[in-house]
Specification:
Elements (H helix, E strand, L loop, with lengths): L3 E4 L4 E4 L8 E5 L13 H18 L4 E5 L6 H10 L3 H18 L15 H13 L3 E4 L2 E4 L15 H6 L15 E6 L19 E3 L1 H12 L4 E7 L3 H16 L4 E7 L2 E3 L15 H7 L2 H8 L8 E3 L1 H18 L9 H6 L4 H8 L4 H16 L3 H17 L7 H6 L11 H16 L3 H13 L2 E5 L4 E5 L1
Parallel strand pairs: 3-4, 3-9, 9-10, 11-12
Antiparallel strand pairs: 1-2, 5-6, 6-7, 7-8, 13-14
Bound molecules: zinc ion.
Zinc ion binds next to α7.
Amino acid sequence: MTIELHNTLTRKKQVFKPANPKRVTFYVCGPTVYNHAHVGNFRPAVAFDLLFRVLRHHYGGEHVLYARNITDIEDKIIRAAQELNQPINAITQKYAQIYRDESAALNILPPSMEPAATDHISEIITLIDLLLQKGAAYCEQGHILFDINQFDDYGKLSNLNIDDMIAGARVEVAPYKRNAADFVLWKPSTDDEPGWDVPDQWDIKGKGRPGWHAECSAMIKKNLGTTIDIHAGGQDLRFPHHENEIAQSQCAYDAPLAHIWLHNGFLQMAGSDKMSKSLGNIVLVRDLLKKWPGEVLRWALLSAQYRQPLEWGDDLLAQSKKQLDRFYRLLSEHDDSHDNQKENNKTQIDAGVIGSLNDDLNTPGAMAALHALRDQAAAQKGNEKNHAIAILKASGQLMGFFNHQPKEWFKQDFTQSENGLNDTEIEALISERGKAKAAKDFARSDEIRDRLKENGIIIEDSATNTTWRRE
Ligand SMILES: [Zn+2]
C-alpha cells in the first residue's frame, strides 16, 4: 500500500516515496511558547500527529524521524517577559510544558525530537554566514537581510508574485530593506533584550538575535539533514514563513529543503470568521479540557480532512462526544481477558481505515470505516464479536482514539445532554431496566422506558441486547 499526499509545492496529490525508507524525515513548525495555545493551534498538531502515526505504521516506529520545534526566542516572547517582569526562560519553559501536557491530553505522541531555537544559535549563525558569503544576504543598519532577488524561485510555494506579496501587506516595510519583501535573518538586541555575539567578519557590531525564519532552516539542517521528505505546518505559514525557509536553505545548501509540503486549512468559529485575538473569539484548549475529554477535541479536530476548513463550535464537540460514546459502549462488551500486549500489537488494522488515511489523511473516510466496523461488530456474537472489536480498537488506536477503559470513559462526566440525561445516566437506566425485566418486575421496567421516552431517548430491544438513540 502506498501513501498519497497533497503537495502544496506541486499543487497535486502524489505518491509519497521517502528518499530513505529506513530514515523518513518529517518537520513541523511548532509553537512559539509565551501564552496558552488556542484550539486553532492544535489543528496542525493533531493532523500531523496522525501523519506521524501513519508513517510509523508503514515504515516502523524506529524509521521515522519527526521533529517539531519550539520557538523560544521571538519578539512576542520578549514583550511578554517585560510585561510580566519575569525571566524569558521561565516563561518559555512554563508554556512549553503546558503545550506538552495539552498535547498529551489530545493523545498527540511526543515527536522524535523537539529542537529549541536557543539551542541552535551557532547553527543559525553558520547558516547566515553562508548566505553572506554567497551574496544572498546583506548587512544594513545592524540587521542582516535576505535578498530575495538572489533567489529566482521566491514565491513558488505560495504561488504569489512579489507584487502580490507586498500588496498582501504581510511584509514589513523598513528603511533597511533593499526590497520590501527582503526578510530579517538577524537583528540587533538592546541591553535588556537577549542577544548573542556575532562573528568578527560580519559588518555589524554588538549583540543580536535571529529572525524567526532562520531558526527553522538551521534546526532542520542540524537535526534532519539538508533535504527532508516532508515539511508541514498551518496554511498561514505558507507565506512568508515557509517561502523564506525555502529561500534560505536552498541558497545556502544548493538543494531543496523538502520534497513534500503540507498545509492544513483554517479553523473557523461557527457563525463567524477565522479565530483571532482581534475578533475576541479565541477558544483556549485549557478551557475546553475543563469541559470535554481530550479525545473529544481530537475527534472534532479530525472530523474534517486536514486541508478543508473546519467549523468549530459546541455542536461539533457534542456530536463528537456522542460518537465516541457509541464506540465506547461497544468496546465495553469486549472480553479482553485473553489479550496481552503482544497480541494487541499484532491485531490487524481495518483496510478501510488505513486505506482512507493513506489517501491524503482522509479522516472523514477513516471515521466512516470505524462506524461501519462498530455496526458489524455489534451484530456479531462470541469469539467473532471479540475479534471484530479487537480490530475496531486497534484501528481506532492507530488514529489516537479509544485509549480509555470504557468504564473510565463513562465516569468522566463533563456534559449534560439538553434532555437532562447524560449518556452515563441513560446507560445506567437501561442496565437497571434489563435487570428489572429479568426479575419480571415489569412495572419498574415500563417506568424506566417511559422516563427515557420523556427525555427523548428511543430504546430498541433485540434478542440479545438493548440499543438506544436520541430522538
Ligand atoms: Zn518553521
